[in-house]
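Chapter summary example.
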Amino acid sequence: MAAIDASWTEGEAAAFVRGDGEARALDLAVEGAWCGACISKIEGGVSQIPGVQRARLNLTSGRLTISFNGPDALAGQIVEAIKSLGYGARPYLPETAADAVTAQEKDLLRAMAVAGFATANVMLLSIAVWSGAGEMTQSTRTLLHWISGAIALPAVAYAARPFFGSALRALKARRVNMDVPISLGVSLACALSVYETAIGHGDAYFDAAVMLLFFLLIGRYLDMRLRARAGAAARRLAALEARAARRVEPDGSLRAVPASEIRPGDHLLISAGERIAVDGVVSDGAGEADASLVTGESAPVALKAGARVWSGMVNLGAALTVRATAARDDSLLAEITRLVEAGEQGRSAYVRLADRAAKIYVPLVHIMAFATLVGWFIIAQEPRPAIINAIAVLIISCPCALALAVPAVQVVACGRLYKDGVLVRSGDALERLERVSVVVLDKTGTLTEGRPRLINGDGLPDGMLALAARLARASRHPLSQALADAAGPGEAASGAVEVPGRGVEAEIDGRRVRFGSGRWIGAPARADDHDEDGAFELEAWLQVGGADPVRFAFADQLRADAGELIIALRARGLEPELLSGDREAPVAAVAQALGITRWRSGLTPADKTARLTELAAAGEKTLMVGDGLNDAPARAGAYASISMGSAADISRSAADLVIQRDRLASIPLALDVARAARRRVDENFALTILYNVIAVPIAVLGFVTPLVAAVAMSVSSVVVTVNAMRLMRR
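The structure predicted for these 730 residues follows.
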């Protein structure tokens, strides 16, 4: 990935801004970021720009997502700020992201090959020097050192580019990063070797310098491969985005265009076997589509005129004409990709702790190395052992493992959950999820299937079904959707307003019309029950002006795995509590069927929030599980939250985690992964502290050569990453 050049102007940067109104977003690919300190530096520097609300860098993909308020031209200022920090930046393009990662890996492999070649040849010369120590003349010894230098110095100049370039950019920005001590150590080893060869006595360390680079490059390459494997979920999603589509022009002709050029309102022709590039609505044609990427279900979904389709779906039948409703960067697949990456590299308390530790530790490394240099010079009365030991301290104490301790765990944990259909929306979500003590459950759409069906449609007064459907189409509530499905295609009422937890109202033909709960409308109370199949009767009411309300009866089915969820929660020491806005009878029936002893009914969103506040005041950390749409106030009052989200709801849900598949079993899985992630983080911190407590004093005391220091430092970084990979085990 090359750094941004001067030809990429502010105006061109503004062309990649997405969003409407004041809210703007920009995705950039950042070059040169290797560690947690880089993340902190870049995010902190960009966040200081007026108008920038949030900056989040994903270390694995190199993707920096910035949210800001202001004109598009602010994008150019953001790019310049990144360059001033010593990093490169260019537009993040999903179709080239994987190529950029592959290019970086190839560059590391080439550098590793050069370092390995130099190591093998220099070591042959060094063996000759060591084996002939008592017989070889000084002139021959010096000649072999010069030959070693002729091989090693060009190899170091080439193979050390990843470290030297990163360190130079940091120093130009008047900062230090973890590549500064590495570069300093390698440079000092080479300089000392040249000096001792030039004066004709002493030992040269060309072999140590190239072997040091060889092991450092092996460690960095393995680290990149492990992080790439752990963060592959987001890249696989990006790879599934269609790169081009056939747009139907106004004259009826077809034109192949890049997916990035598709705009809302464009009509696209989707052939059989073709992946849909953007979200849209079928305007012509009928058939089936593979929606497993969106829903997690393998069964094809039927498509007809008016059906919603999502980016990433594959057309399995006849050709379809789809009207785009979103641009590529605003489509569902792009949103899911951003969610996966956001969860992978979020700013949890542990990440912030590791960043602060790394920020303090890097200057401390230089202080320890300088103190070792001075101390050994005083003890040995000569510079040679002092410089060698200082180099070893610089290398062995590099805080790479510390910076990777938390991000590696986050990347693996989020990737593991994504495979099971759980999207992590915030960086500290898993951290909070691990601490919950009470699970609060909504009923409709959570414990029940959330797909009720109208059961008294034949007995409704004439015209009432069609009238209620006009209001229902303006709402995402399960009962509204069930009513709209029963009524068939049609238009929504203009100016309809949804009152959370109550219903929808609008003025139609000069009359105020309401569709919602009986308590809101003032309908008479009724007793409810459920049948032997576990279908719970629900109701909604329609009121036209001052006329008597009309009752709409629905039946909802208890989820097959709801009972298993309650058992699983209790097995993990969590007591469930049911809070619902429905009436007492159906809520009591659900609670009784599942064995839930703590439940409340008839609650408004404000009542749910009050209950969560009450639990928090009692010292409980609550997990709120809802349908993702009607419990936003309650989720805001919960310590952590999970939404049962459908494809249409993923981008609208404000929950910490969104369950993409329709399975309650994902909730205990998320709890297990969160708890396992906490253990891996604690283990990584312990391993890092243990490594430094043992390795640094040994290096300071002079028992470690630069070569051994390089091996130890590389192994420590790989160990914490491999420990994080244990989360992938099922």
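To summarize the output: Confidence is low (pLDDT under 50) at residues 1-10, 343-347.
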